[in-house]
Design brief:
By secondary structure, this protein is of the alpha/beta class. Helix content is 36%, strand content 18%. It is elongated, with a radius of gyration of 32 Å.
């Protein structure tokens, strides 16, 4: 099945042969030189200034012998400098690629996949990214003050100057985007979004991702303005303030960013209620919200629409890196009639102008705008009877169910979302201690609701009973505040937390992040260090304590004159005290992880951990000090009682509270 757009830009070969996104920017720079091109906080950069600054840097690049179509990697944390640099690269007839500066490790992977002719970066970023590779480096201040070599700036070539974009996968893959594709993608967006010179655009994604690296043209090639963060990236709460302050009219974001923007000011909801809200008066300037990066369900789409003024639009964009951020798009007016089960449906709508989408054996294939090879997306989908494309998941996410069949998780996750208390859902196949695998459902609540409203395993299985095959029903539930996502906004299945007490440790698994490995959740790999510490470390520490008892407390264990069998019994007692001390020290350093896995609360677990360690450790110094204290030395006897006996009582009380506290479900997870 094939779907093509209802309309497209006129195909004028003569015009296309001379036209580029750079020419479009130059046209607006000449036509409206004083119009704002970049807005960063209180600073506004007009088109004329941006054009002049990029001219100076382009002359410097030309004087630096940048080869025709030479590849220039850009590692600039300030997006104002970044936009200037990428325009300069295009003016010098080169190709730009934006690197991830926020994550030097990711930036180095991108750089290794490029082999660029030149790196534009500050000294610190260049040192972190280059790592001794010996690349030619140009610092952003060079050539920006008019001191560049006096080479005239040549006209920008009609078929030179393009971009290299990066996919959002864990291992970034560079994708070339030629000048024809960049221009065709801009024209497709201009038609769908109805871009105007008065628009002010804000991108929440990182500058190295496709939405920004290819999407800047939507503003600067249509006479609009780019609203940029003052720091390297947008911080929580800044996007909303920037939209209000700069009167942003178009926001490009991902599903999580859209919820943060439109529902951040909503008070917590005490119970599961319909997700409908009144329009947000603070976002009155917003006329278009473009959401891409991951699936957006129909009920979520409708909820976002409710938060905008009448007449504002919400687009669900199926954007491909290989198509420079185009593919397919959907908005609610495309629906020919109301649909049942909106929480189960994610619609991609219709292709962008110039694109064509085909469904081949259940998988989506896209012909990019401006021509080019067909893109095999690896995504699943269907062309509905109403003519709209529907998203069906990703072939790479297929997992093996308990009965051995191959399972597409998207339909199952969509069915889970139909539960009134579930906001987002993700199903993964995880390893179980002792061998085998198990299906686990990761759930997060609707916006404004606490994680406690999420169903447990029994309630979820009841909800799915009769709706999905028995072998596809998850065997466990992990409740999280939000699903982990990549920098491109896609749900990250590789970073879901491992349920404690259930899963085998994953060799080489990633950890340390917010949703990292099982260590953060008190996973089962903590049991091995505990067993090792108690089995090997405790006896060794105990024997050392026994050996040094006579050194620290001379005469405290002297059994001279004590007849057998009493002398033997006292010697065994002294040995047990020393071994208890060793076990307490070992437990102090290795016992907290397994106790956290019991899910009884972090505060009471910490107190109980210290109390148990004290109960074991205290006997060795306490008894030795008691034996050296005279029975009639009342001040010393009182000091020992209050120094040891009272804390022992408190420790026992803490352990009692911990032991009687009801543990949470072992599959709940709270970051």
């Amino acid at each position: 099945m094939t779907q093509s757009p209802q309309s497209s830009q006129p195909d004028d070969p003569a015009r296309q042969g001379a036209d580029t996104v750079l020419h479009r920017f130059g046209t607006w720079a000449r036509r409206t030189p004083r119009a704002p091109a970049l807005i960063t906080g209180d600073e506004t950069v007009p088109y004329s200034v941006l054009d002049a600054e990029s001219d100076r840097l382009a002359r410097h690049l030309t004087g630096a012998d940048l080869p025709a179509n030479g590849l220039v990697a850009l590692a600039l944390p300030r997006q104002r400098e970044l936009v200037t640099a990428l325009l300069a690269v295009l003016k010098a007839g080169g190709t730009y690629a934006v690197l991830d500066v926020a994550d030097p490790r990711g930036g180095r992977r991108q750089l290794a996949a490029l082999a660029p002719d030149l790196l534009i970066a500050g000294p610190a970023d260049a040192a972190r990214l280059d790592a001794g590779k010996g690349l030619r480096v140009l610092h952003p201040g060079e050539g920006a003050d008019g001191t560049a070599p006096p080479h005239p700036l040549p006209p920008a070539p009609g078929h030179g100057g393009a971009a290299v974009l990066f996919t959002g996968a864990a291992a970034p893959r560079p994708v070339p985007a030629g000048p024809a594709l960049l221009l065709a993608a801009h024209e497709a967006w201009a038609e769908v979004a109805r871009l105007t010179p008065g628009d002010r655009h804000l991108f929440t994604a990182g500058p190295d991702t496709t939405p920004f690296a290819a999407g800047w043209t939507r503003a600067l090639c249509s006479g609009g303005a780019l609203v940029l963060p003052e720091s390297a990236a947008w911080l929580p709460g800044q996007v909303r303030r920037a939209v209000r302050k700069a009167e942003v009219s178009v926001v490009h974001t991902d599903p999580a960013g859209a919820v943060d923007l439109l529902f951040a000011q909503e008070p917590p909801t005490p119970a599961a209620v319909p997700f409908r809200r009144e329009p947000d008066a603070e976002l009155r300037s917003l006329r278009l919200l473009a959401v891409s990066g991951d699936r957006l369900y129909l009920d979520e789409h409708s909820a976002l629409q409710d938060r905008l003024r009448p007449g504002a639009r919400v687009l669900n964009v199926y954007a491909l890196t290989e198509a420079a951020g185009t593919g397919a798009w959907f908005e609610l007016p495309q629906l020919p009639r109301p649909l049942d089960g909106p929480e189960r449906i994610s619609l991609l709508g219709t292709p962008f102008p110039g694109c064509r989408v085909r469904v081949l054996d259940g998988q989506l294939a896209v012909d990019p705008p401006g021509g080019g090879e067909t893109i095999a997306t690896g995504d699943l989908g269907a062309l509905r009877p109403d003519g709209l494309l529907e998203f069906g998941g990703r072939a790479a996410d297929r997992i093996e169910a308990a009965d051995g069949t191959r399972l597409d998780p998207h339909p199952l996750e969509s069915e889970i979302r139909a539960h009134a208390s579930v906001g987002t859902a993700l199903v993964a196949r995880v390893a179980v201690t002792g061998g085998g695998h198990r299906l686990v459902a990761y759930l997060s609540p609707p916006h404004g609701l606490p994680a406690e409203v999420l169903p447990d395993t029994a309630r979820l299985r009841e909800h799915l009973s009769g709706k999905v095959p028995a072998g596809s029903v998850p065997r466990a539930v992990v409740r999280v505040r939000a699903l982990p996502r990549t920098r491109a906004g896609r749900e990250d299945r590789t970073q879901v937390p491992q349920p404690p007490l259930l899963l085998a440790p994953v060799p080489g698994g990633r950890g340390g992040g917010k949703y990292g490995g099982a260590r953060a959740a008190g996973g089962t790999e903590e049991v091995v260090p505990l067993a090792f510490a108690l089995g090997c470390g405790a006896p060794l520490l105990g024997l050392l304590a026994r050996m040094f008892t006579g050194v620290i407390w001379p005469g405290s264990t002297d059994l001279t004159g004590v007849p057998n069998p009493w002398a033997l019994l006292f010697w065994i007692l002294y040995l047990c005290e020393s071994l208890a001390f060793g076990a307490g020290v070992a437990f102090l350093f290795s016992g907290r992880g397994p106790m956290l896995a019991q899910r009884r609360g972090r505060g009471i677990t910490t107190a109980a951990h210290l109390a148990i360690a004290y109960l074991l450790i205290a006997w060795w110094p306490q008894d030795n000090l008691y034996r050296l204290a005279a029975k009639q030395d009342w001040p010393r006897q009182a000091a020992l009682v209050y120094a040891f006996n009272v804390p022992l009582m408190i420790a026992a009380l803490v352990v009692a509270v911990y032991a009687t506290r009801k543990p949470r479900s072992p599959f709940d997870f709270d970051d």
